[in-house]
Write a structure and sequence with these properties.
Layout (H helix, E strand, L loop, with lengths): L5 E2 H17 L5 H7 L10 H12 L6 E2 L1
Parallel strand pairs: 1-2
Helix pairs in contact: 1-3
């Protein structure tokens, strides 16, 4: 499969969704828990881990998107 990159718009949407998820924690988020845990394979990210991920995704040295 060829390498695929996110667009700036897709990255912005991912960041917005992560921040929304972060605000919802630790309240019940059962509707999305299966996605966040890949069907129970691992624990969902904590609030702090989501914050770190957002910072990493948003850092200029992270090359995830084109444009």
């Amino acid at each position: 499969m060829p390498e695929q990159q996110l667009t700036a718009q897709e990255l912005a949407t991912i960041l917005a969704a992560l921040r929304h998820w972060q605000r919802a924690l630790p309240q019940s988020v059962e509707a999305y828990e299966d996605i966040a845990t890949d069907g129970g394979r691992f624990e969902p990210l904590s609030v702090d881990e989501i914050d770190e991920l957002c910072m990493r995704l948003n850092h200029p040295s992270t090359k995830l998107f084109r444009g």
